[in-house]
Design goal:
Strand content: 15-25%
Mean pLDDT: 80
Strand order of the largest sheet: 2-3-1-4
Low-confidence stretches: none
CATH architecture of the domain at 75-156: 2-Layer Sandwich
Order of helices and strands: HHHEHEEHE
CATH class of the domain at 75-156: Alpha Beta
CATH topology of the domain at 75-156: Alpha-Beta Plaits
Length: 163
């Protein structure tokens, strides 16, 4: 009899724990409204007013998209151009030289040295949101690095405040 009583109490505690744990997860998720993403600034009183009427599910989708991209280590899905890939003993030094040469040749394009298992050093350049965006740079880069090609990567999000 005591065994069944202890078993029932354990079940009640387990149910209570699961309830509290799942309610905590629901509270931890943030909801981002579209109006929070695009705040209204009125530097002068001559501006008009824009009212957007949209379904509430649009805010939900936008929130999911933003939260999903936050899980990508602060970046977003995009493309980079790979200009170097080696696994020799001197690959680290060679990759630094290739990156330095690239930075001199193309100062406006960001460049990154990455390490890939088992022992590859890669030099990838650019932060392109689409393949088409990277294609125009790829043709210019191929003149200097003929074996360059585009690869899908997690890129740094572009600065939206840049003019």
């Amino acid at each position: 009899m005591l065994y069944y009583f202890c078993l029932m109490i354990m079940r009640v505690f387990l149910a209570l724990f699961i309830f509290l744990f799942t309610s905590g997860i629901n509270n931890a998720q943030t909801f981002i409204r579209t109006s929070d993403l695009f705040p209204v600034t009125r530097p002068d009183s001559h501006g008009g007013e824009l009212n957007i009427k949209q379904n509430a599910s649009a805010d939900t989708l936008m929130s999911r998209y933003i939260l999903g991209n936050r899980q990508l280590r602060g970046g977003m899905e995009g493309f980079r151009i790979q200009i170097y890939s080696r696994s020799t003993r001197t690959a680290r030094e060679e990759s630094n030289k290739v990156r330095a040469e690239f930075m001199i040749e193309f100062p406006d394009i960001p460049s990154y040295i990455e390490y890939a298992e088992p022992a590859y050093f890669l030099v990838r350049v650019g932060d392109f949101r689409t393949q088409m965006e990277g294609a125009k740079w790829l043709s210019l880069i191929k003149k200097k690095y003929p074996h360059a090609y585009q690869v899908p990567c997690i890129i740094n999000a572009p600065d939206q405040n840049k003019n």
